[in-house]
Amino acid sequence: MPADIATMDNFDLNSHDKTREMSEIQSFYDGMTVLLTGATGFLGNLILEKLIRTCSGVKRIYVLIREKKGKTTEERFKELFNDPLFELMKKQEPNYLEKITAVIGDCCLPNLGIDLQNTNILKNEVNIVIHSAATVRFDEHLRKAVNVNIIALQDILKMSQEMPNLKAFVHISTAYSNCVGRQVVDEVFYKPPISGDNLLQLVNSLDDDYITRITPSILKEWPNTYAMTKAIAEGEILTYGKELPIGVIRPSMIVATSDEPIPGWINNIYGPTGVVAATGIGLMRCMRTDYTKIADIIPGDFVTNAILASAWEIHNQWKNYKNSSDLNKEKFVPKIYNIVSSSSNPLTWGEFSFYNKKYGSRIPSIRAIWPIMLRLSKNKYEYSILCFLLHIIPAYIVDSLAKLTGRKPQLIEGYKKIHKFTAVISYFSLHSWTFHDDNTKSLIKKLSKLDQSLFKFDISKLSWNEYFKKHVMGIRLYIVKEPMDTLPEAMKRNTKLYMIHYTLVSILVALLILIIYGLFLLFV
């Protein structure tokens, strides 16, 4: 193993000393009851783990879980804690299950699919709502995107209006919810393209097939259903969240954790993670990207810490608002936090590619079918040619050989998915935006030194070089699921793949020279 590549065991995973006095944020969560939606998702996992491990004084966490793929809510709840993510939490808080209660629900259903009894319990007990549930698929069917990203938010806001002990409500949006028609995105509310109620009325009047056909005309300049519905959802906060202690978190592209609870943890292949995973096993060799544009990525644990810290500030802001005796005071304005890296620690797509190739070649996958070679091109015609030469032709050759040997051909179908995936994310890899994050920076300054240590999200202090060691290793461990003891064999395989690659390149170059020389002799 290369000297500068550390294993996960080399990192300090010790959390705070419980004998210390609680920090301000820990004190805020002490004795509180939290409702967390989206707990089974990547970000929801991190929020749940962090709350139990670091804010151990929390009274109870209600997590909304639906049935999925033939599994009951109870089965999904039990499986939730089998992930390596929760190992440190279980070690430090062995009685964690005593504080977590699963609530049967579904964000696709009216009133979040929660029955009346549980609805009343939540209304009476909940102090803090963290709404993390969302469908993050860029190409999600519009009906589902509307139901999950907009209507579910409306429903939980209505429920929150009847929570007499509500201290803070945090809605997780996205930095790209307002990326259309502007290059600069401030921490303010923007006018949505349409109200949630009007869009719901439209989709409810049409069948799924017709919605699919007309979705491009509905989206207009919006890149996908995700960005548009998240923009509309922010507008619903001003309508249904009036006079609630509410705030909005807008993270950019969320990637693997940097430090906690384990470095490099990731459990999905959305966005940049999918690019690195596909490139690491040699499938993806070209991408439509402008290498000079900003890859605005943010580690998952930084987003989690910002969410938990923001609830503390939202509560303080709300408390000051309610205690103000000014009769002419303005209405409460929810605070928005842009959680981005481009403002304080910008990284280009060219640098993103460089770091991933650097560490990907040092800790290669045992399953790789080709060395890591990713060509970035912003020209759509050049990109199409590269796809044909580097993806389609090799796929047809390999699949043809597979058929001859009685195996199932897979590469052609695989590349169809990869090309669809890259088409979806190309909007974000060909453009850059200026995200102002004054509220986020101000929040960091308000934290005590202890809270800045316990809830770290100051991106200016992150070393991208150090981060990508963990990032690449995390994808190998948690996405490709290859233990580190396979690394020596993977290194040997990688050397052979490079030898094969350069041999083939040499043969092709030699053939090209012979053809050119033959043509030269023919016409001389």
From TrEMBL:
The protein's GO terms of the molecular function aspect are: alcohol-forming long-chain fatty acyl-CoA reductase activity; alcohol-forming very long-chain fatty acyl-CoA reductase activity
Residues of the Fatty acyl-CoA reductase C-terminal domain: 390-482
Q: Which Pfam families match?
A: NAD_binding_4, Sterile
List the subcellular locations: Membrane
Keywords linked to the UniProt accession: Lipid biosynthesis, Lipid metabolism, Membrane, NADP, Oxidoreductase, Transmembrane, Transmembrane helix
Cite the EC number: 1.2.1.84
Q: Which SUPFAM superfamilies match?
A: NAD(P)-binding Rossmann-fold domains (SSF51735)
Question: Superkingdom of the source?
Answer: Eukaryota
Q: Where is the Thioester reductase (TE) domain?
A: 36-307
* Location, primary (coarse class): membrane
Q: Which GO terms describe its biological process?
A: long-chain fatty-acyl-CoA metabolic process
Extract one GO cellular component term from the record. Answer: peroxisome
Query: Which InterPro entries has this protein been placed in?
Result: FAR, FAR_C, FAR_NAD-bd, NAD(P)-bd_dom_sf
Q: Where are the transmembrane segments?
A: 500-523
Q: What does this protein do?
A: Catalyzes the reduction of fatty acyl-CoA to fatty alcohols.
Database matches in PANTHER family = FATTY ACYL-COA REDUCTASE-RELATED, MALE STERILITY PROTEIN 2-RELATED
Q: What is this protein called?
A: Fatty acyl-CoA reductase
Q: Which organism is it from?
A: Melanaphis sacchari
